[in-house]
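ok here's RNA methyltransferase, seq below lol
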Amino acid sequence: MKNHIEITNFNDPNLDLYARLSEVQLLRYAEPKPGIFVAESPKVIGRALQAGYEPISFLVAHQDMDREAVEILERWDEVPVYTAEDAVLRKLTGFAMTRGMLCAMRRRELPSVEEVCRGARRITILENVVNPTNVGAIFRSAAALHMDAVLLTGGCSDPLYRRAARVSMGTVFQIPWTYFDKKTVWPAQGIEQLREIGFKTVAMALRNDSVEIDDPGLKSQEKLAIILGTEGEGLLAETMEACDYTVKIPMSHGVDSLNVAAASAVAFWELGR
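and the structure came out like this:
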């Protein structure tokens, strides 16, 4: 195919996006404009393309090209496709690619909190969740279990980082999301902004002064914002104090808490119905 380029020079600058730039460098690649991200696997790439993200180039392995990958490349036959044997690509990128396919894409301007929340009934807020795996897993649960949007504080890992997007199975491209504006002080101004939009706020926290997660009054609220805290430490004390409700997931066998991604699935299932 005319757009397929066999990799013969590891130092080709066109491969920097895949082999030599960190996630942070890609994020800041075009500052002050939105940067670049790299999506991995045909399913994730396909969902990003369906959501309107613009591909820059593809990096694919010769062997084991499944039908989904072939269909993507056929639809984008003007976009450069860098290709080599799997062993060569592993040497270049430093890892085994999921189903042999990567795609560098241009980021888009993020919407405002108001835009993301328009028409939403159930949303979740991630407070300083730093592990990309947890961020991706929470997005997958949010999309599957009736959340309408995801908001993130500035301390969260970026949902478009390769691992986060892959763990989410591409749902980061299916559910609306954004960060709180950098000028918005969290939690005071952020929670006040949510209240102005009409949301009651729910702190998921290990406190005894809490309501049951299946409380009928809680579930009858027209708009709920479910706030999840960072790994290990949980929510900030100021966040818990500012919220309308505190909810604790009942535990058994002496277990005191769940991983934030697991807790998110429980909360979304119970409060999103």
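fwiw The mean pLDDT is 92. kinda neat tbh
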